[in-house]
Amino acid sequence: CIKSNSKKLHKAGINTPRKDNAPLLQCTHHMCPIRIHWHVKVNYKDYWRAKIAITNFNYRLNYTQWTLVVQHPNLNNVTQVFSFDYKPLVPYASVNDTGMFYGMKFYNDLLMEAGPFGNVQSEVLLQKDINTFTLKQGWAFPRKVYFNGDECRLPPPDTYPFLPNYANIISVAYSTMAATLALIILLA
Questions:
Q1: CA-wise closest residue to 152 among 143, 160, 164
Q2: Which keywords belong to this entry (predicted)?
Q3: Residues 62/112, Cβ–Cβ less than 8 Å
């Protein structure tokens, strides 16, 4: 592996694929060529927003026309996908928990090799169904993820952070009021 700040990365031909297709990976704790990062960005009253970022750690390989398949219980409520194309995969009419994300042609359908341009990202807006929606016990995170047909290993759900289903308006109001009073006292 090679560190992201290594001087070796400035050598000519470092990104050229080899005949044996040996990867040149950036040193990470997981040593995988790809990282899919699913980040719960905002938790609105009726919607929630997740950011999806795909990072390439292989200095010798870019991915053209990549695909990301995600299994998540709330994908039946996708409202908007901002900079990836999205297609629900509905093998059973009653179950819509799987979808395919892929790059927009001429915009981000090419995931470049590791380095400053080796990532693509998007945001997904999902509507909440108060009868089924919860952020308890890792619910906000995908159950399965596949990149270009290969299944990605996910941490167990009990290691995910616990998130509230909604912000408590009273506690937010009290904390805002307390912060305002503290500023007034400091400025006086």
A1: 143
A2: Glycoprotein, GPI-anchor, Lipoprotein, Membrane, Signal, Transmembrane, Transmembrane helix
A3: yes
Written as one letter, the residue type at 171 is S
Domain 33-187 CATH class label: mainly beta
Contact 65, 102 (CB under 8 A): yes
Residues (pLDDT < 70) of the chain are: 19, 132-133, 136-138, 157, 160-188
| Tokens 């990549």 found at | 66
- Domain segments of the chain: what residues? 33-187
Number of Cβ within a 10 Å radius of residue 8: 10
In the block, which residue shows the tokens 């010798």? 60
pLDDT tens-digit profile of 23-77? 788 887 777 888 999 998 988 888 999 999 999 988 888 899 999 999 988 888 9
**What is the Rg, in whole angstroms, of the alpha carbon atoms belonging to the chain?**
21
